[in-house]
Design a protein that fits this description.
Dihydrodipicolinate Reductase, domain 2, eight-stranded mixed sheet, six-stranded parallel sheet, 2 domains, globular, alpha/beta, 32% helix, Rossmann fold
Length: 326
């Protein structure tokens, strides 16, 4: 049984992580939460070993790993605190809200030989692992272009959206850092390092309720290919559709519902798409899959986690296109 401390354990993402780690039955979970009421609510809902209010006073060395699930503006100093104590950590995405301190974190991690990763969940779920395996095997030839379409009514999923990080630029809110950075991570994983990019961003529907963007269009060069990203946080259907164009065929991923996703293949112009795989209940299990992946990471098995360096490249790309978009 591994001991993990989840920092920000009283928040929405923190609780998803708690649920995922506990369901593996491979972790004993403790939390750090500054909000006393949220801490008590979390302790009442989950089997929590220990609880701390002050992260910087918590005995990090007693744990096999620390998971930092606080708003993104706290990520760098907390990760540096772990790295200076040679404590393994998993850091929620995005890496930060600016590039300040990023190089220092990477240097501190290297200096102390700290094992760490960044928690972009999609690198841990079966459908995306299958996509990666097929593309790496040359199933569609050389991948040259990718299109990432994501839309949902975020207000329904997070009814408190006006009062959380999503509404604030200084905490990493908005669809570029919160939604599209997931897809940028996939583009890195499948196509290569991000290069030049452009974006248009707007607050089309949410109005004065948030100070961030609820919609964005972005394009960029990744490795030897191109990628485009479409996202809004107000549409009624919850849709995720990814297209991958290779030199010998195309793959299409469709998130049908939270309980069903499908993967299609086509290599001609007949209009027929062959269903080559389907995945049950993925939308209900993202954090469970990631926790299982992190267990493998801790015991030295191969894992697919995003590295700090990749997360830094992602952040640099997203911040760059966002700055140019407004």
């Amino acid at each position: 049984m591994k001991k993990i401390l989840i920092v920000g354990g009283g928040g929405g993402i923190g609780r998803k992580h708690i649920d995922g780690f506990l369901r593996t039955e491979k972790f004993a979970v403790s939390i750090c939460e500054i909000d006393a009421a949220k801490c008590e609510e979390t302790k009442a809902k989950f089997k929590i070993e220990k609880a701390y209010a002050d992260f910087y006073a918590a005995p990090l060395e007693e744990f096999d790993a620390v998971l930092i699930a606080t708003p993104a503006n706290f990520h760098i100093p907390m990760a540096v605190h772990c790295a200076r104590r040679s404590v393994t950590f998993l850091l929620e995405k995005p890496l930060s809200v600016s590039m300040d301190g990023v190089d220092n974190l990477i240097e501190t991690v290297k200096k102390n030989s700290v094992r760490c990763a960044v928690a972009y969940t999609r690198r841990s779920i079966p459908s995306h692992l299958k996509i990666h395996q097929l593309i790496q095997s040359g199933f569609i030839g050389k991948l040259k272009m990718a299109n990432f379409y994501v839309g949902q009514d975020y207000r329904k999923i997070r009814t408190d959206y006006k009062n959380i990080y999503f509404a604030r630029r200084d905490m990493g809110g908005g669809v570029l850092l919160d939604f599209i950075s997931h897809c940028v991570d996939l583009a890195q994983w499948l196509l290569g390092k991000p290069g030049k990019g452009y974006a248009l961003c707007a607050n089309l529907v949410f109005g004065d309720e948030i100070e961030t963007e609820d919609s964005a269009l972005a394009i960029g060069r990744f490795g030897e290919g191109l990628a485009c990203f479409y996202c809004n946080a107000f549409q009624k259907p919850n849709e995720v559709v990814f297209d991958f164009a290779g030199t010998a065929g195309n793959l299409k991923f469709v998130f049908v519902t939270r309980t069903l996703s499908k993967l299609y293949f086509s290599n001609d112009d007949s209009g027929h798409w062959e269903e080559i795989a389907r995945f049950e209940n993925e939308g209900l299990n993202y954090y469970y899959y990631q926790a299982e992946n992190f267990y493998n990471f801790l015991i030295g098995r191969p894992s697919t986690f995003t590295t700090l360096e990749e997360a830094a490249e992602n952040l640099r790309f997203v911040l760059g296109v966002r700055e140019a978009a407004f």
